[in-house]
Amino acid sequence: MSEPRATAVDRRASEHAVAGDGGAVQPIDVAAIQAQFPQLQRRLHGQRLSYLDNAATTLKPQLVIDRVARHYRDETANVHRGVHLLSEAATADIEHARGAVQRFIGAREPAEVVFSGGTTDAINLVAHSWGMDNLLPGDEILISYLEHHSNIVPWQLVAERTGAVLKVVPVDDDGDLEWSAFERLLGSRTRIVAMVHVSNSLGTVTPVERIVAAAHAAGALVLIDGAQAVAHLPVDVAELGCDFYVFSGHKVHGPTGTGVLYGRREVLETLTPYRGGGEMIRSVTFERTIYNDLPARLEAGTPHIAGVIGLGAAVEWVASVGVRNIAAYERQLLAKAVAALADVPGVRIIGTAAEKSAIVSFLAGNIHAHDVGSIADRNGVALRTGHHCTQPLMERFGVPATARASFALYNDERDIDALVKAILEAKEILE
């Protein structure tokens, strides 16, 4: 007899809790966490807010809001080259944020942390800076069906210009990568493997260590899209060994318009700058430009100073809670959500991979996902509905859209109860 689904998820949560970075998992004081997020104090249509749209963007703790406000209120100045106190202080603050990110993801040195406008911006930087210089006709780029459009379209653009070929690893009916297909598609012409760490649609956690090892054995570079991972799972890029790792600030409780491209120094130094302008230069004449050292050579122009400072505060805050603690707690939420939805007649979960982050995409009978989302909104539940910027993946499962509930460390069982109540109401009204 097969193991009940909820029990299997609970068991994997326990295994994950002891398999991460070596420290003991500590319980999270969820009420204390919730008190730090002012947006959770508001009501939605007169109802308690159940914010279950964390895969789209996460809420911001008061500490991050205050840090950004303090910069704009008291510390505004441009960074680098200024000799006045405010400029020097702003420069120190942004470099402090770089160090915070370095420690958070386990990079070997601050120079391996390049600030970007977000995950999409970082992937485009690599695709164009590395891809345009290194890809030749017939070379292969290997991605998967799990990718967000931001890890598909940039590679398509570069493939069209270079003559490279895009290869796609399929997924099985549970939403897991088909490893045998990965091994078959990975070959001597593969130049880069660009794959997601955690699927934003299904929550599938991909075997990134295995992917990196196999790709490197084949002589390919590896880019990992960690947008859905860094706030929810322990990440150590040096231990992982990937060549690039990218994520967005707004999905790790930081400001929008910020992000990170991590790259191994040896690889970053080979990149032709994607953008030209101020700060990325050492000297400029009309005949020739000499580029600056890392990371400045890849950070043209005035950065999003307040946003980057806020990002630094955000990752320090997440680190203070403990990512392993967050992962263990969210796995418990996932198990409870899966069990609760299993008791709702007609609900079908799309994506039942053995290793999942706390993301649940589902269908409620024949009710359109947008209708589920609208009724959920009336009940104070913020869901995401649609194709989630993963149209090829939706096509793979034969659905135009799903409703998606994605959890974070400030969610609790009341949010699951509100979600179930909203689905039952939608079924009562629309079926």
How would you sum up this structure, described in words?
The chain has helices spanning 5-17, 30-34, 62-74, 85-105, 119-129, 131-134, 153-162, 179-185, 208-217, 237-240, 265-268, 305-321, 323-342, 369-378, 391-396, 413-430; strands spanning 43-44, 47-48, 50-51, 113-116, 140-144, 165-169, 190-196, 221-225, 244-248, 259-263, 281-284, 289-291, 347-350, 359-364, 381-382, 384-386, 402-406. Helix 1 (5-17) packs antiparallel against helix 13 (323-342), helix 3 packs antiparallel against helix 12 and helix 13 runs parallel beside helix 16 (413-430). The chain has 2 domains: 5-52 and 322-430, Aspartate Aminotransferase, domain 1, CATH 3.90.1150.10; 65-320, Aspartate Aminotransferase, domain 2. With 431 residues, it is α/β, with parallel strands linked by helices. Residues 1-21 have low confidence and may be disordered. The chain has 16 helices and 17 strands. The longest helix is centred in the N-terminal third of the chain and has 21 residues, at 85-105.
Question: Short summary of the structure?
Answer:
Helices cover 40% and strands 16% of the residues.
Which superfamily, in CATH terms, is the homologous superfamily of the largest domain?
Answer: Type I PLP-dependent aspartate aminotransferase-like (Major domain)
Largest sheet: 7 strands, mixed
Number of helices in the DSSP assignment: 16
Shape: globular
Question: Mean pLDDT across all residues, rounded?
Answer: 93
> How many structural domains can be distinguished in the coordinates?
2
